[in-house]
Design goal:
The chain has helices at residues 11-18, 22-30, 47-55, and strands at residues 8-9, 37-39, 42-46. It has a 3-stranded antiparallel sheet with strand order 1-3-2. Helix 1 (11-18) crosses helix 2 (22-30). The protein is of the alpha+beta class.
Length: 68
């Protein structure tokens, strides 16, 4: 399956896409919580993988009995 160059996002593009700050995104990347690939010194993200990641169910603190 061919992906166009627009299907690979930079950290800036992904931060905009997710509507979060770059610093928050870097934190998520460092924690290994988001699908990412480092190319040299730069992070790259496949949009399709990000969309699948967004669809995955998450467990929140309230689901675990926290934040009461």
């Amino acid at each position: 399956m061919y992906e166009s160059p627009g299907d690979v996002l930079t950290i800036e593009e992904l931060a905009t896409y997710l509507k979060i700050s770059k610093s928050s995104l870097y934190k998520i990347v460092r924690e290994g919580k988001i699908p990412a690939q480092k190319v040299g010194r730069h992070w790259r993200f496949r949009k399709g993988a990000i969309d699948l990641w967004l669809e995955e169910p998450r467990v929140s603190k309230t689901d675990l009995g926290g934040d009461r």
